[in-house]
Predict the structure.
Amino acid sequence: MTPADAQQRIAHLRAQVTHHDERYYRQAQPEISDFDYDRLKRELAELEEEFLLFASADSPTRRVGDDRVQGFVEVAHRQKMLSLDNTYNETELRAFHTRLVKLLETDDLRYTVEPKIDGLAVSLTYEEGKFVRAVTRGQGDRGDDVTANVRTIASLPRTLHGAAPRIVEIRGEIYLTQAEFERINAERAKEGEELYANPRNVAAGTIKLLDAAEVARRKLDIVLYGLGACEPAVVHSQTELQEKIRAWGLPVVERYWKVRGIDAAWAAIGELDQLRRTFAYGTDGAVVKLDDFDQQRNTGTTDKSPRWAIAYKYKPDSARTRLKSITIQVGKTGILSPVAELEPVFLSLSTISRATLHNEDEIRRKDIRVGDLVEIERAGEVIPAVLRSFPEERPAGATAFSLFDAVGGHCPVCGGKIARVEVDTESGLGAAWKCENYDCRAQRAGRLGFFCSRRALAIDGVGEIVAAKLVELDLVRDPPDLYDLPLETLATLNLGTGEEPRIFGEKNATKIVAARKVARGLPLEKWLYALSVPDVGETTARELGRRHRNLADLADSALLRAVLERAALEEEKDRESPNSKKNPPKDEAERSRRKMRRIAIDAELTTLEAGVLAGVPSEVGPSVAASALAFFAGEPGRRLLAKLQALGIDPAGTVMTAGAFTGKTFVLTGTLPTLKREEAEQKILAAGGKVSGSVSKKTSYVLAGAEAGSKLEKAQALGVPVIDETAFLQLLGPA
Ligand code: IVH
């Protein structure tokens, strides 16, 4: 790999990992399996190690996934909460042992082997034996105070049994049992609400609810296994700790192993694998820890994880079955995706008869043919996927798959034209077929479901099935048509068939009517996202929503036109460079003309950057700008705008106003996750604030990022509010 390729790949991986961190830790809605996530992260770490040149202090490989969200008070942990190194392979596990033998200069090492619980990490503080606080891991040093929600957990004693230390932080995992998970989902299904994907996501989502009564209705559970600060020290090994936790009356793991040497640890990992499906909590691996606390201290930690422990993760469950056929699904953007129709097979608690094949390139790469025996895998929440085929056992007549042939060159839903397009896939850019008919029924249903989804306008009650039905009956063409449907029509909607009717009902219909009313008042950024403007994802929608007054302003956006203009100027500058090798000037006169032009271009660029484009982030690039402008200039966009106007829906942008920081002084320290220092400074100045180099009592805020230094300490000592980038951006927008 060339350094340039590495740099590009590193940037791609960082963006991916950061995105999946956000989905997993903050939103509790992962899009990919842990296994795939770990693979991405591993590849990134390896590239960063090989190409030190591109290492960066704010890479997601160097930080603990941040779970903090708005609405909770942040509390510092007395002792940092770290994460764990993990591996899927025995050799690396043995290398972990070899490292410790070297570090500690003895090969007589005792370990505990414990279940790795698939929940969310929490730290409980007991003072004089009384439960006082529960805090999430947050970014390791400080997390969200979720005490009120943790108090709803029935199995958690308010007082430790027996003698207790003056103060102790006990760490563990909050989880939801499979049974409770299924109960909640059954209830949601009855109400026509979107189903949750897996117990871990529900547990993580529940602990971040602001309504403790709702939390109490979902019966969370907890199990404890670790120690933070403890004064005075009362235990000296992990086994002692496990016994102590039990003696205090707290829930502990069902089983752990105390072993000597790595061979015994490996054997215990195998035993745990046999048992783990019987536990109340999901167990996705084994955690191997040095037993002795003195030895733990002697090995120390890296900035992210201890050297004395490692997680061995089990491979996701898989099964073998026959691929009967491949059908094609059409998504909301019109992309045609292949779906495996399987001989039903039992896997991880349920029977599977369909699985994703990702895309045509993947099918070819894995040499999967209709009729093949295939291995399918289900990793936690995500849709089961076909992993591989067994060409050596291929039956005669197993046929290679061509998506184009399978659909006869037309969209299988609407019969419209399909075209080849480039798409982003996990392994980089790929090609796919796309239905070009914006009014295709599948696309319409997809867009309506998305419009109503929780991340968009949260019109609960309109899930996939309801959306498909509304479109099928031609009750909704574009999502805003939902507003035209009277309660009566919704209530009498038949989701079943003529013989077996399933009537949606008045209660569900009333909910939709209430939710769509609330959605009217949501800001531009939400609406923009909800309307499925091509290439406008959540982040882009947020940025655009903060920079435009309303949809009309956006449809004719000076900012987006400036983005395109900048790109055109940059391209011209490149192409017409006086020193261009590809396109050399033909004579001296042309060279000097180009030089003059270049000076003029630079001046134009400076004007743009300092003016309309000031502070516009890289997410809003030329392809987004082109897509958004084209969309609103075209038939679909104009139609949407007209419908919204007729409905009197005019979502307002949260335009940043100069003056939000008038009279405020900021001090910056550390590396922010997305903003460059200069960008943050520019935003402060633009909003009327001041930036200073040192912290004093007069400082209004310290804006702190990763690896913040003495300024942060000083702020804490003086009681100056410390904010992170998210809080900063929130302050910047009007409340
Ligand atoms: S010990 C210093 N033990 O897994 C870090 N962690 O992927 C010590 N986890 O952050 C953590 N079960 O939230 C430990 N038996 C167990 C665990 C466990 C689950 C979680 C924990 C940790 C994460 C790392």
